[in-house]
Amino acid sequence: MTEGPATRKEMGTAFRRLVQLRIWLGERLRFTELQATLAWAALIGVAGAWTSIGFKEATEWLHQLFTGNRESYVESFREMETWRRLFVPTLGGLLAGITLLWGSRYKAPANTSDYMEAVVVGDGNLAVRPSLVKSVSAWFSSASGASIGREGPLVQLSSLVASVAGRVFHFPLARKRQLVACGAAAGIASAYNAPIAGAFFVAEIVLGSVAMESFGPLVISSVVATLITRAHYGPEALYAAPSLHFPTDSRLLLYLAPGLVSGLLVPGFLSLLKGGERAFSVLKLPAPLRLALGGLIVGALAVLHPEVAGNGRSLVFSVLHHPGTWQVLAVILACKLLATAATFGSGAGGGVFAGRDRPHVRR
């Protein structure tokens, strides 16, 4: 059956209309550089959120395997026998150190494993294997009750996802750096359920700028990551505090004093962390023994006060709702500071938000 002139004419007309429609859509739906960056920032927020959720769930699973309990770190250590309070952090530190020692063979001279360096002075490329080694090491430390936070590996993994996406799609340098920063913001927002704080932290500390062309994508990524995290875990605040009622506005001034005192004490806390590093460096132990020793110190303190175990979230929650006497709080605070200094000084991976997120390898 042959096509007649009328049929060919109709096909030609339809083809021209499709071409015209394609040109019209291309003109109307053309993405600008900023719009494309915002779209990718949202996708990085999604990927960062699920990466963070996966790490949290894996940490809870390993914590249950170590302790036989899926409750908070403090409750788990409180219910364990004395020998297990000593053994679990030591074992976790030993496994974390073995991971770092094994992973030290993966050197990446061209790429960095520090997301801040990748954004500020690098090309936006994070080394995959060293980043995964850091995260696995932090996984062992966090799950075994080390006195350190999980924001370090969360930020590391979220930034790594963004970096890999930038390499796969061959993004230009500026966008690649921006997306790695978006990954870091998504990781912080997922860790603390705080989207604006995550965006501001990365903008001020990492990028050093709050210009809208750089700050906007950070907000998009942080908000998307927070929405997904809240959909998975619930909308509750990380540190839910009881309601406070003030008879007069002047009572608010009383809260300025703790804030000022806390700010003045931060340099002392940082000096304590550096002192812990110096003390462990004097021993010149290999990574497995060094981290195992740090875990043993945490376990010994946990024998006296289980509140030192973990990242301190349950401790802060109990202080907010059932503070107890100031003498007891002072003793627990002193033990917690020593446990954090021992964990940080031994080289354990994780996060010390007042200082710096630093899961690194020392040989």
Helix content: over 70%
Unreliable residue stretches? 354-363
Number of helices: 14
Largest sheet: number of strands, sense, barrel closure: none
Mean pLDDT: 80
CA gyration radius, whole angstroms: 25 Å
Helix/strand class: mainly alpha
What is the number of E strands? 0
Shape: globular
What is the ordering of alpha helices and beta strands? HHHHHHHHHHHHHH
Oligomer: single chain
Relative strand content: under 5%
Distance between the termini: 80 Å
Q: What's the arrangement of secondary structure elements?
A:
Layout: H1 5-28, H2 33-67, H3 73-79, H4 82-103, H5 115-120, H6 128-143, H7 151-168, H8 173-192, H9 195-207, H10 212-233, H11 256-283, H12 287-304, H13 313-321, H14 326-346
Helix pairs in contact: 2-6, 2-7, 2-8, 2-10, 4-6, 4-12, 6-7, 7-8, 8-9, 8-10, 9-10, 11-14, 12-14
Short description:
The chain has helices at residues 5-28, 33-67, 73-79, 82-103, 115-120, 128-143, 151-168, 173-192, 195-207, 212-233, 256-283, 287-304, 313-321, 326-346. The chain is mainly alpha-helical. Mean pLDDT is 80; it is low at 354-363.
Give an overview in words:
The structure is a single chain. The protein is mainly alpha-helical and 363 residues long. The chain is built from 14 helices and no strands. The radius of gyration is 25 Å and the shape is globular. The model is unreliable at 354-363 (pLDDT under 50).
